[in-house]
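User: I want to check something. If I give you two sequences, will you return the structure for each one separately, not as a complex?

Assistant: Yes, each is folded on its own. Here is the first sequence with its structure:
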Amino acid sequence: MGREQNPSDFHNHFQDMNLTFHVMRLAILWRAQLDRALRPEGMTLAAMRPMAYLMLRTAPMNQKDLAACMGLDSSALVRILDSLEADGLLFRQSDPQDRRSKFIVLTTAGRKKCQQFHHIAAQVEAELTSFIKTGQKTEVASVLATMEARLSPHCVLPSDPS
């Protein structure tokens, strides 16, 4: 049998990728926690992600830009958008500049669902970060937003005003 890994072994051998490991692991755990919180409301993170991006943007987005912002292949996003459209949460609107392109627009029901998602996500965030001081939370959020903007300059979302 192999010996059990000591958590500090990772830090000793891979100090140059310590942040990478923690960010990747935290993303997995956070998403799982959020998905569990959404399920009782009949919601999934996969369905809510595109709606949240649309809610955060002030300008209309087409499917290609939305897929790029989400880091998804356009064809994978189509299935999600089709389902959301069938549920009456969004619709596709022709782009007057390019008839082949369609803007993705939230319906009133879609905006209400986004508000519900926001409430649940805020609760999950509060639970997961309850041990962190407010100033530290603000600092971490600022650093992460800066990193995100540098990695994805074509899809900058509005910053949290707090």
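And separately, the second sequence with its own structure:
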Amino acid sequence: MVLSYEHVCRLHKKITGKTIVEHLTETRMAYATHLLATTDMSILEIAMEIGYNSLSHFNHLFKKYYNISPNEYKQHPDKL
């Protein structure tokens, strides 16, 4: 049985209620909060670790997702 990419995407959305990209972003952001709170890695290192090649794109998505910048979160991880 071979499933097309589009079919897999539709099935994922039907089962989880989220697109694959939304699921991946959620997973990446959760891992980013963990790294920000528990390591001394720079924000750039964390962005690269979770798969973002652009620091500005990571900063934008993090702020959109949590309404706080990665730098603010790193300084005060209890804000979420």
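Because they were folded independently, the notes below concern the second chain alone. Residues 22-79 form a domain with the Arc Repressor Mutant, subunit A fold (CATH 1.10.10.60). The chain has a mean pLDDT of 95.
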